[in-house]
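Deliverable D2.4 — example input (structure tokens):
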């Protein structure tokens, strides 16, 4: 009798195993993918929009039947603080981590710890040298070169300019400084009078430029990165210059409003906005999900100084000829002043990077 009962028990186990193997595709997708986010700087609207874009794509996945849960570590921290953020996510046993980094090299060891634990790591917005991470970013160096090229051409290849940079030492800022230098090699008659850091903060940029204008009023052009343009314009408005300098501005709604207002008093004022898309975070989510699901990147996809970067397209630009229509379209969509022109990879576009 005991042998008979044992045989019946084994048969039941076999049937249960067969039932598991017979799960429908929908049931097989019931796994929840846990994605950690390490965001080490929260002092700009850009970062808020980045996180909102990631959440939007999470909802797209859910509607398509793929469960995604975010575990977010977001605070103003130094490099050591961001290392702790990432270790918290490793300990939480997430499947993938998206990092917007505070250092080009300082996170390499903790990124290695994550990938050694079987976690896929994607770095967005800025490039790090970690060989086990995949960067997903626009080409920040080319972005800055484009903007400085525009400024130099708008000045006819000569003049005195001021450069307002972001946060010293951040990977994107360093890449942008290199892009500025790339451009200026071609314009020997452009003289940089002063370089200062505005820390991607409108208020600080306004303060910094106000001090420069007080001592150096004869400025022909101003190079500013995104996240500081409105502060730059407010400093210029307060200074009431005889002629408004040319400004390489930004693609924010609030900036475009001020740009339009200034043209009423200074019809010859010129500016330019080149989008640095916060949606790169959402693009990074699509890439990390593909990696988690075992997909392999195509040969030749990874580029950049460390050969570990997927460069995504710059989605938009605006100049004096397109300002009115662009702003009208954004206001019709009820976009806030803090909104910057954006875009992120569709699933089909993300899949195109993979075999």
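Example output (designed residues):
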């Amino acid at each position: 009798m005991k042998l008979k009962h044992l045989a019946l028990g084994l048969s039941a186990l076999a049937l249960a195993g067969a039932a598991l193997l017979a799960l429908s595709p929908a049931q097989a997708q019931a796994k929840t993918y846990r994605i950690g986010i390490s965001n080490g700087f929260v002092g700009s609207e850009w970062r808020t929009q980045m996180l909102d874009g990631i959440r939007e794509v999470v909802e797209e996945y859910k509607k398509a039947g793929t469960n995604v849960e975010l575990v977010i570590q977001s605070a103003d921290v130094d490099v050591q603080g961001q290392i702790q953020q990432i270790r918290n996510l490793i300990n939480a046993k997430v499947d993938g981590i998206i990092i917007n980094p505070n250092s080009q090299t300082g996170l390499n060891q903790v990124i290695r710890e994550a990938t050694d634990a079987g976690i896929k790591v994607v770095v967005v917005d800025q490039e790090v040298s970690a060989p086990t991470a995949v960067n997903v970013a626009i080409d920040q160096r080319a972005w800055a070169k484009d903007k400085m090229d525009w400024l130099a051409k708008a000045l006819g290849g000569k003049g005195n300019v001021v450069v307002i940079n972001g946060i010293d030492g951040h990977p994107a800022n360093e890449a942008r400084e290199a892009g500025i230098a790339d451009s200026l090699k071609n314009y020997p008659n452009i003289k940089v009078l002063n370089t200062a850091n505005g820390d991607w903060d409108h208020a600080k940029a306004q303060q910094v430029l106000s001090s420069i204008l007080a001592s150096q009023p004869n400025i022909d052009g101003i190079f500013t990165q995104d996240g500081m343009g409105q502060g730059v314009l407010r400093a210029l408005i307060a200074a009431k210059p005889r002629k408004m300098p040319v400004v390489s501005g930004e693609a924010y709604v609030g900036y475009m409003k001020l740009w339009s207002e200034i043209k009423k008093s200074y019809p010859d004022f010129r500016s330019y906005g080149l989008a640095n898309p916060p949606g790169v975070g959402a693009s990074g989510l699509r890439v990390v999900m593909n990696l988690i699901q075992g997909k392999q990147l195509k040969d030749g996809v990874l580029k950049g100084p460390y050969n570990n970067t997927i460069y995504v397209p710059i989605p938009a630009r605006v100049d004096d000829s397109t300002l009115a229509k662009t702003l009208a379209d954004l206001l019709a969509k009820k976009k806030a002043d803090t909104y910057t022109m954006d875009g992120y990879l569709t699933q089909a576009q993300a899949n195109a990077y993979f075999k």
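Residues 2-21 form the longest helix (20 residues).
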